[in-house]
Fold:
Amino acid sequence: MLLSADKLTKFFVSSKTERFCLWHDVNFELFEGESMAICGESGSGKSTLLFALGGLESVDSGTICFCNQMISHHLNPHIPGISYIFQHYYLIEELNVLENLLLPVRVMGEKVDTGVMNRAHHLLLELGLEKFSYQLPRTLSGGERQRVAIGRAFMMNPRLILADEPTGSLDEQTSLRVSQMFFSICQKFTTSFILVTHNENFARQTNKYCRLEQGELKRCK
Amino acid sequence: MWTLKLALHYLFPKGRMGTFFTWISIIGIALGVMVLTVVLSIMNGFDKTIHNKLIQINGQIKILSSSIIEDCTQWMHTLKNFEGVAHVTPFVQGIALVQHGDYVQFPRCLGVDEKTVQSVLPLRSFVCSGDIADLNQGVFVTKGLAQTLNINVKDTLDIYSPLSLEAIKRDEVLLPKELPVVGIFETEWAEIDKNTLLCSLKILQDLYGLNNGIHGFSLRVKPGTSIQQLCLKLNAHLPKPLRAYSWMELDTDFLYILKLEKAMSFFVLLFVILVACFSISSGLMSSVVRKTREIALLRIWGAQRWQITALFCWQAAFLSSLGILLGFIGGMSVLHYRNGIICFLTGLIFPENFLWNFYSFSKLPAAYAWQDFALIGGLTVIIALLAAIIPALKASFSLVARSLRSE
Structure:
């Protein structure tokens, strides 16, 4: 088992006296290579749940285990094996596409050798970005930028990708193209992913499709 | 060293010659460093010129006595053989009343031994007209005194001895000594040049009724000898009331004021760098706010808090280093053309001899001191790093989830 959530509960404190339950008794298991989608209305706590699964947000009760290690007992922004993709790409504007892909490797303290360079070029090829390698993000379209962000997430050989509305900023056609690319690359590298999205079509393409409604995570598929 | 590389990319993004913030910060630091370099180098130049002038005028060591030194020849012999002493010359000094026609002045009079004086005081280099060898035949006056008395070479000067006062008390009249002006000199030290008369030891001894007595000795030390150390040794050997004074001791207050002026200039001008560093701080703070999501991503990828701090400190260090380099280059360029610049600026507002009249220097002196460069550079980097600390800490302690959800 890659990731498991057991009876997760999160309260949201709105003032000194007032707090309400964002979600409770969230349980699921995700195996290697599996995918999962979380849908729900805005403000239902989807992103909070996603961040909690990645160790960025605390939970008030329950446990999260990633690769048989409990990660819910304290906040840890860096969990090896987990990568993120965000709606707004968050590319480093000062670096070109290739350097954006290599930066996480450098930050992790790994040497950028021929193997890493080959992986970067391979990813750029897979994502159809090879001709943009030395271009700055500001010269790319939204779809191209999101593809760079996907490539960057895969540079660290992740076992799990947490994607927070990765197509939220794109038009319908581009969303479709980017999401197909994302699904296929995940399949190719047998990388698990949890997708938070409003798009039910994309959600249905995953192995486990859940909806977060009234604080409960309900399995739809 | 990804932090250094990314810091450089933040300052100089690909395809651009740096951001507005980068250049404003660099220029701010460069201006501060340039002003400090120029002012301190000119201060050093003044110090050096003043030190040299004080040595040229007084000699490196002066031996003074509160009473008349009678056995001049014997002391000359003793001092010449003293370890570390190269040359000795006796002198008599005082004030006299001088008259030329209707013009009267009370100049400072210095009587020197024309045979030995050249080995200690470079009098020949001060001479504007006349020959120092003629010192036993008349007097030399400074340019300023010559102008005040409306006198020239070959004119005659009436010199009234202070002994005249004693003679008046005894109802006697002591006639003035009539001496020809044999030369005019200029030391470029305004205090001396305004009102000084130079004559032979013998003339002044006669004028003051000293017989063979003198007031003191000027000494030149052997190369490599410490003036302070030699002074201490001399004072250990010399009987009271004789005492040796180094040129620094003779003008302690003046030299202290020079040091104080330099320190105060440094302190005041350091505020220019402080202001520039505040601009770095505010620029970095806005960069932290702008890049809050990128910082969160770096933390997700495994960057430690100290690495995020380093990312912003590198930027401050790089900005300050480049500012320092440009500041030094700018400062040295200004110093190189300083006299042209000063001539142009003073020529616009002030008369030609403005600098000379007020500062006793016709040209701005300058001297580079590596200690000053190191101090300016070191302090600038430290202040810039301190200015970067607050934004850097804000960046490193920002909450990752909150930063990524801020949209």
Notes: Residues 20-58 of chain B form the longest helix (39 residues). Chain B has a mean pLDDT of 90. Chain B has two domains: 2-51+254-405, 85-221. DSSP finds 17 helices and twelve strands in chain B.
